[in-house]
């Protein structure tokens, strides 16, 4: 078998990929959510996200506006942190945080018999208002965000990106987020991941960056 | 709708997830590759990997043996680097490398009109023999590894993990790796990712670590 490589310049690979994705989508995308859905599929090659990504009203616009106002992003894994385009985030005035490797978080999690992700969300909430929570791994992080919100301890989140992956309490934790009266983007079902969480943040960052230039 | 969370202790979540995966698999897995396939599905909630993951003869055993001899791992993204369990890798005597953010790599890529991933593989190959290449993003990294190998410039790789995701030359680049007479684990098709590359390295690390203790 002869394996033929397409000749595409490095700078054109992303645009070509997006063309292919658009051409294979079975139904047109809501223009408001298009940038996020396209980037989710681009990152995963999984067209399921065209169906499973669920947006609260105006979630994308609200996320983009928050970033334009310098909102910071908190992740549940170092991998999601690593995938976020910090250059663009810093340019807009935001920071990226992750508390999972904090020794205090590890000790508190051990003492209380909860996950480090649970404790790290409490640290995040203490940072204050208008944060973007990007959760790609731990359903327990989403459950704790939901509980904090119910207890009045989650001050005005700008956006919750709820896209953990897995088999235990993942579907349920995402459904809890969908009951919240705050902006969210959730990948319903079992699928998701740290790569997806980062990709969604980046889609919002690139839209914000483009809006700023225009 | 009442959303009910299962009560599972943090330490038991992974074992419970693996039970669920095993119970839903349609065909039994080859015991030799089972640890890698289970962890791939655990990381992605995508059962396609039971079909698409392709192993050269003895690839898992060879990867595990290399890690037990202190092999180092090179990734194509900081995200894959971030997802690898460095604690276990270091304990076995290995290091994790990534050259994508090296300013020299960026400059050379620009000058030559190639991707940074291409140049970063040349830096990696210069490290010497018995490396594990964990490629979850850039098909151009796989293409360059293939070319270097054909030119006799890729000194005895311990294992190539070829699992990039995407739409342009991804399928083809993986097929090139499957023609190589060296140990490989490839996710055929478009799907893959940095998270998957890290998960496969971790599956090998945990197997190596277990073998060492026994």
TrEMBL record, chains A, B:
GO BP field: cobalamin biosynthetic process
Gene Ontology molecular function terms on file: precorrin-8X methylmutase activity
Alphabetical list of InterPro entries matching this protein: Cbl_synth_CobH/CbiC, CobH/CbiC_sf
Keywords: Cobalamin biosynthesis, Isomerase
Metabolic or biological pathway, per its Swiss-Prot or TrEMBL entry: Cofactor biosynthesis; adenosylcobalamin biosynthesis
Span of the signal peptide: none
Highest rank taxon of the organism: Bacteria
Pfam families: CbiC (PF02570)
SUPFAM superfamilies found in the cross-reference section: Precorrin-8X methylmutase CbiC/CobH
Record domain Cobalamin biosynthesis precorrin-8X methylmutase CobH/CbiC: where: 12-206
PANTHER family in alphabetical order: COBALT-PRECORRIN-8 METHYLMUTASE
Similarity field: Belongs to the CobH/CbiC family.
Name by which UniProt lists this protein: Precorrin-8X methylmutase
Taxonomic classification: Bacteria, Bacillati, Bacillota, Clostridia, Eubacteriales
